[in-house]
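REQUEST ID: PR-0412
SUBMITTED BY: lab tech R.K.
PRIORITY: routine
TASK: structure prediction, single protein chain
INPUT:
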Amino acid sequence: MIKSTFTALFLISALTLPTIAEAAPKKAQAAAQTWDGTWSGKWGGKSSGRVTVKGNKVTSYYFRGQPQSVGKTTVSGKTLRFGSDYSVTMTLTSDNSASAFWRGNGTAKAEMVRD
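STATUS: complete
OUTPUT:
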């Protein structure tokens, strides 16, 4: 009786532990890929840019301290895109940093950091 109880507990543990262990990385990965927060950087190392994201949607964008039209936001994997008469593509490089590319009447790059 003791042996069969032990065997049953062992089998239950063996079947449940991988599920618990697999859930933690997926949850951490989902949290790491949220864009929510305020991102700041310098376009071309000169001009300030600040992007605020809430619910994975850009709610404001400032260029040289001036508010800009945001347009539509799209998120796919580690990439966020938005823009109106321009386009900005940001790609996560870590939980709190992203490389950004701006295209409008020219192009510029920036390293953005989440505040």
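NOTES: Residues 5-17, 26-31 have pLDDT under 50 and may be disordered.
REVIEWED BY: pending
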